[in-house]
Predict the 3D structure of the following.
Amino acid sequence: MPFHVIEPLRQQESLHHRKGLFAPSLRPTGLPTEPIRRALVFGGVAAGLMAYILWGSFVDRSFELEDIYLIPLVFVAITLLTAAVTLVGPFLQALRVELALDEAGLRCVASGLVTYYPWMLLGPAQIEPDWRGIPTLTLTNASGRAFMRVPLFGKRVHASAVALLRSYELRRAGPILPAPPIARTLARQGRPMAAWLEALAALAAAGNKRAGYREQAPLELGELPSIVADLGQTPEHRAAAAYVLLAQRAPDLDVVKDAVTAAAPPLVQLLVHLSPAGKAIVSRESIEDVRPFLEPDEAAAIDGAA
């Protein structure tokens, strides 16, 4: 299952934190797979029967007089074995994949490797049968090249994939809004994590000041709540706006709490957690769930704040 968009950063077993995600998460084999188990059992029995027949016909020679009756059995055994082999590959492939959407991209766990795909790097997706006739969710990158195919087993799994695909296309086609005037001040601009947080704290302190007579008015921060809640803004701007709001003298927790849920991008959740009043909104347990989707220096900030 090749990845052509970005390389996985690290490993994690599963997407534990799914509550409140922007769209239903998809685990293709998260539902009962009795038909698959039955096919595997029949395939195993068929393989054993075929081996027994071949041994008796060509090695032991004990079935020479009954060969004419064994032909249908051999045909059935080969048919069942072929069906089982055809299903085993897609089933194991689906077993190792889990997908979930958030407000800024696609979270993926495949064979234990955690990957995050921002919307700007994602292309169209579709559900169509593969050459075996198995419904398959195909994801493409911005250039239209397929980088993941997820087999879907069962009606309920297929329905979950349809719901995810619908939300995927709606969110991917969402408007990209122009950056607000304050964006240049909020942006990280390549600074180390500690320097960025220090600059944001200074911005919050400046916003707390009151302009005196003939003094320059403090930086206007009134648009920060709308930036935090606006899905059309970049995760970096939303994260910085949330941090500044929570670092102010009298933080409005409700504004950030309503906008920052488990569906928020990992970077937004991180800066809320690192802010002076943010641990009441994004707990340590919640931030640990999105740690694998953060850059190394961002993840290190979690331990530094502990």
